[in-house]
Amino acid sequence: MPLTGIYFLPTTPSENSPLPGLINRITANYTCTPLQRWVLEHRLFRDAPNQAISSSAVDEKPKPGPRYLQMLALSHYPGHSFIAVTRTQAASQTRAGTPASSHISAEGSGESATLISIPSGPQSDDFLHLVGSKMGLIWMQRPTLSVSNGLSYRMGEYRVRLGEVRQGAGSGAQLKGIAVELEWMGAEEGEWEIGEAAIRAFWDTVGLKKGRGVVQIAGWEKGMGTVRQWIEVLRLKG
Predict the structure, then answer these.
(1) From CA 167, how far away is CA 201, in angstroms rounded?
(2) What is the DSSP string of 186-208?
(3) Burial call 50-78: b when 16+ CB within 10 Å, e when fewer
């Protein structure tokens, strides 16, 4: 049973893309077979301020974090668009001291995502039109992120997809970071610890210390685990 880790490596406006260097380190340490290129598009909406739930002065319960509506399309899931609704934890609810380079992010969401799949094409276009034209008082649009020409390789028991995450379209699109989908195909049922160790070993081999990684998240058992990982990573970026 394959185990997947999703990583996002942020960049600054003055920084050149780290993708060539990352590819060089991977090809220097592993025998790589190029695979099909891939694309991604992620649209993010956040609940409008007047929809936020506030706590009363006497209410001791933590204030809930914002809710998000996300729409994700991945070329290696052809014909599908994924729609998720999530609520993040308030800052006081997150675990203190969690490093930005954490490999495992089980606590990133206050609740597991409600996740459905609809056909891509006209149905997904109609859904976006509905949210944008009829639900503006509920959902505010946030930046759209995309990977337009990602690379992928097979390396023994590993398969990796890499790509530049950009905000906007055309020549003016801004580089926001590098996304990496790393799959280890040597895991058997229930061997989560072994799979996590294999994924971390790959990450350490290519010498990358920054970034945020998601291996297991709430709601994994409900299916579409890799999609849930992408939803988690890209929401945090957005």
Answers:
(1) 30
(2) TPPTT-HHHHHHHHHHHHHHTT-
(3) eeeeeeeeeeeeeebbbbbbbbbbbeebe
Helix (H) or strand (E) holding 230, with range, is: helix 225-237
Alpha carbon of residue 216 to chain centroid: 12
Helical H segments across 30-176, by residue range: 122-134
150 in Cβ contact with 166 (< 8 Å)? no
The sign of the CA dihedral 22, 25, 28, 30 is negative
The position carrying tokens 């506030």 is 54
Q: Please provide residue 33's backbone torsions phi and psi, each rounded to the nearest 5 degrees.
A: -110, 115
Kindly give, in sequence order, each residue whose CB lies less than 8 Å from that of residue 49, ignoring residues fewer than 6 positions away.
none
| pLDDT tens for each residue of 145-193 | 999 989 999 999 899 999 999 998 777 889 999 999 998 887 676 677 7
> Which residue has 């055309």 as its token pair?
170
3-state SS assignment for residue 23: helix
